[in-house]
Amino acid sequence: MKYLQLQYFVTVCKYNNITRAAEELLVSQPAISSSIRELETQLGVKLFDRINNKLIVTPEGKLFHDQAVKIIQSTERLEMLMKDIGHQHHRIAIGVPPMIGVFMFINIFTRFKAKHPEVSIELVESGSLDIRKHVLENKVDLAIGVLDDKISHRIEYVKLIDTSLVLAVAKNHDLAKREHVSFEMLKKESLILMKADSFQNQKIRIEFEKLGIQPNVLLYSSQFHTIRQFLLGGQCAAFVFKEIADMDENLVAVPLETPIPIQIGLMWKRSNLLYTDTEKFMSFIKREYKTDEAP
């Protein structure tokens, strides 16, 4: 039994489909099919039932899958440990939603690189909800995103800041001089919302749904430069973090009558073995934001 066979088998189980497994692993379908047949012959058990051209994992296959996953994870951790010992790892993949990147990550990156120029950082941009999936799937080492009670128990986190959503408008917008706005007042307003993979999108839609209002969405975007250009025209409004609106002297941050507080934190997968460089970044950002957590 070979390690590669375990990888092929676990990936086929992931999709119950050899074609999709082959696409992910960048190998041919016959290579995977042959590997599965060899495994079944070597083990003397049937790992899949083939029903109507679909693969269904057998009870024996499920048992084998669970143990194979543990072997693969242990092997990956061993590889990480040895690379770390050999000082071969100097890259950190960090997931950051675009909007949080605008007012938090650039400063963090600049200050960290000044202290640790040898460490390369790969920025993976996506909405807060997708970022959590990236953490669980080991696509990123760390993530900075919105915290709430729906975070998986497999993710560890520490809070960095408290913030809130505001309505950002141009100075010449009709709502710019108001002390606050309600969602009822916005039922006919042209709005820019974050994309569906963002925490903000869900929170805003919930507030409108409570009132039975279908928001008038002009555009979905998570790129602040794009949103800003539309806002400066004075004909629409957008929900953004307060810090982002405050950064731009041409925009006004109008508070919401019913505030939407938000916590932003640093996240990583529970029980993952962390590289020394990753721990350096964690320690750095915790000191910067004066958290009480140790890495």
Q: Any chance you could write out the topology, listing elements then pairs?
A:
Blueprint: H1 3-15, H2 18-25, H3 29-43, E1 48-51, E2 54-57, H4 59-85, E3 91-96, H5 98-115, E4 120-125, H6 128-136, E5 142-147, E6 155-170, E7 190-193, H7 199-210, E8 216-220, H8 224-231, E9 237-241, H9 242-247, E10 251-254, E11 261-269, H10 276-288
Parallel strand pairs: 3-4, 3-5, 7-8, 7-9
Antiparallel strand pairs: 1-2, 5-11, 6-9, 6-10, 6-11
Helix pairs in contact: 1-2, 1-3, 1-4
Number of helices: 10
Class by helix and strand content?
alpha/beta
Identify low-pLDDT runs: none
Helical amount: 40-55%
What's the CATH first level of the largest domain?
Answer: Alpha Beta
Domain module tally = 3
Architecture of the largest domain in CATH? Answer: 3-Layer(aba) Sandwich
Task: Note the overall shape.
Answer: globular
DSSP summary, beta strand count: 11
Describe this entry's structure for a reader.
The chain has 295 residues and is an alpha/beta fold. It folds into 3 domains: 3-85, Winged helix-like DNA-binding domain superfamily/Winged helix DNA-binding domain (Arc Repressor Mutant, subunit A, Orthogonal Bundle), CATH 1.10.10.10; 91-161 and 263-288, Periplasmic binding protein-like II (D-Maltodextrin-Binding Protein, domain 2, 3-Layer(aba) Sandwich), CATH 3.40.190; 162-261, D-Maltodextrin-Binding Protein, domain 2. Helices cover 44% and strands 23% of the residues. The chain contains 10 helices and 11 strands. The protein has helices at residues 3-15, 18-25, 29-43, 59-85, 98-115, 128-136, 199-210, 224-231, 242-247, 276-288, and strands at 48-51, 54-57, 91-96, 120-125, 142-147, 155-170, 190-193, 216-220, 237-241, 251-254, 261-269. The strands form 2 sheets. Strands 3, 4, 5, 6, 7, 8, 9, 10 and 11 form a 9-stranded mixed β-sheet that branches. Strands 1-2 form a two-stranded antiparallel ribbon. α1 (3-15) packs across α2, α1 crosses α3 (29-43) and α1 crosses α4 (59-85). The model has no long low-confidence stretch (mean pLDDT 90).
